Amino acid sequence: MVIKKPLTAKMIVAIAIGALVLIVGVILSILLISRGMGSNNTKSVSVLPPNTCPQELKETDGKFIAMTEGLVQQMTQDDYNWVTQNCTFPTTSSSMPVLKNVSVNFGTYNETTNRSGDFLFIKNITERNWNTKKLVSEFGSFLESETQNTSMTFNQLDSSTNILAMVDGTVSKVDDPPGESKNYSIYLKFNDNWTIIYRHLRILKFSVRDKIKSGDILGNPSINKDGVTGYSEVEIMETKNGKTTYYCPVALLNPTVKTQIINQIAAQEKALEKFYGDNAIYNENAQEVDPGCFVENITL
Questions:
Q1: What is the pLDDT of residue 11?
Q2: Disulfide: which of 97, 172, 211, 225 matches 189 by Cβ 3.0-4.6 Å?
Q3: Alpha carbons 104 and 153: distance in angstroms, whole number
Q4: CB under 8 Å to 228, separation ≥6 — which residues?
Q5: 87 CB burial (10 A radius; 0-12, 13-18, 19+)
Q6: According to the model, what pLDDT value does residue 196 have?
Q7: Whole-structure pTM over 0.90, yes or no?
Q8: At residue 110, what are phi and psi to the nearest 5 degrees?
Q9: CA 300 to chain CA mean position, Å
Q10: Residue 90 has pLDDT above 80, yes or no
């Protein structure tokens, strides 16, 4: 037979206090959870004020979103254009570069000077670096070696052309191939995954670890076999999960400049074919993405 001891006043007070603490704890937990949910619903998405720089610009599923203090900010196309032109912020390892140029100027063909921006129209060239009349060898086109071109190659440049940085970054490497005097390559690291390589430069303005801004002059093009004109090329690659993907520079252009540049490239192609009297120099139908691009990217 078990005899229960009667509860004393102290025991009753202790039990009451314990129950009260438990009830208060549960109520506070419910309040905190509901407040957090309400905060997410009302504050997680806001609108980016016009002409305002967010703290971050992140790329998600091929789209860019603005972030300030961890909160997503919706952007119109005009907002995005303004931000990419006027704001600077740290990039993340997954951010895709957005180019403001393609390293050279295409301009408009002038029949009096036989120039189109940085390019020279010259017929009587006895020796070329590449066996082609093209001023631009398209990304994704097939070269004489029957390999697919993973860069955008520029031929018959004015030898004094300023080769421009397409994005911000840090110089991670400079190559000077043995036996090729004044034929440098400069590697610009955009972030953990993306690298832009500028090849065939005879004069360099920067060294390893230098910080580069978009539009900075990197150097001047190497000299062609004709001894007069210059040539250069740019290559953009993303290294991720053990694979390397190369991208056509034109496909990564900022929308604010892309239309103008692709129109200039297309006009230059037509002007060059007219200059030579040869409508088969360029295969416009093979440029599936944009002028200058046979394809958008190549994964090796």
A1: 64
A2: 172
A3: 11
A4: 122, 159
A5: middle
A6: 97
A7: no
A8: -115, 115
A9: 19
A10: no
By the 10 Å C-beta count (0-12 exposed, 13-18 middle, 19+ buried), 93 is classed as exposed
* Beta carbons of 136 and 154 less than 8 angstroms apart: yes
What distances in angstroms separate CA 50 from CA 59, 81, 109, 258, 278, one per listed residue?
20, 11, 38, 22, 49
Please spell the DSSP secondary structure of 137-202, one letter per residue.
Answer: EPBT-B-TTSPBP-SEEEEEE-TTPPEEPSS-EEEEEEE--TT-TT-EEEEEE-SSSEEEEEEEEE
In angstroms, rounded to a whole number, what is the distance separating the alpha carbons of residues 240 and 93? 10
User: How far is Cα 126 from Cα 227, in angstroms, rounded to an integer?
Assistant: 10
| Segment among 104-113, 160-169, 287-296 with least mean pLDDT | 287-296
Percent over 70 (pLDDT), the chain: 77
Q: Which residue has the tokens 């062609």?
A: 224
Give rounded-to-5 percent helix, strand, coil for the chain: 25, 30, 45
The pair phi, psi for residue 31, each rounded to 5°, is -65, -45
CA 285, 287, 288, 291 torsion-angle sign: negative
Average pLDDT over residues 84-92: 65
